[in-house]
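Whiteboard transcription, Tuesday session. T.W. wrote the structure tokens on the left side:
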């Protein structure tokens, strides 16, 4: 098997554009009043669905550093079955899942209506852009086979 091309370093102009889009999405999330922990949950849930180990490790660490609870992170794949998440968080997670799995149901009217009940239009847009960007980063990391290994204990 030939070594994978790191598409981010192979075409740095494209990768820099993705980084700029990510920064813009982050700024929109802040301006919309989204909790920084919710932003990380959206990124983590998107990465869980896509199976991106690199992004999962990065954003799980970020969430923990920002004060997210290990219990909430542990149940995130089954968020709908728990009482750990607020109604707005649940709406954002449902919307992120629908966007990530767009080929399944094209972001159904029901999912959108739930989001619109719990989130402002600015928050819906911010969650959508965060999810879109995270999906792109997942695809860069997975396509390039970013290495994820355990660190040696010190």
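and on the right, the sequence the group agreed on:
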């Amino acid at each position: 098997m030939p070594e994978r091309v790191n598409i981010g370093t192979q075409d740095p102009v494209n990768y820099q554009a993705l980084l700029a889009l990510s920064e813009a999405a982050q700024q929109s999330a802040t301006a919309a009043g989204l909790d920084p922990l919710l932003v990380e949950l959206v990124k983590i849930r998107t990465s869980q669905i896509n199976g991106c180990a690199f992004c999962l490790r990065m954003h799980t660490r970020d969430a923990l550093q920002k004060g997210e609870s290990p219990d909430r992170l542990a149940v995130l794949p089954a968020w709908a079955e728990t009482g750990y998440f607020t109604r707005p968080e649940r709406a954002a997670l449902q919307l992120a899942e629908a966007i990530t799995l767009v080929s399944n149901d094209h972001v159904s009217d029901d999912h959108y209506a739930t989001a619109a009940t719990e989130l402002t239009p600015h928050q819906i847009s911010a969650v959508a852009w965060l999810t879109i960007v995270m999906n792109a980063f997942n695809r860069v990391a997975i396509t390039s086979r970013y290495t994820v290994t355990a660190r040696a204990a010190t």
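Someone added at the bottom: The first helix runs from residue 7 to 10.
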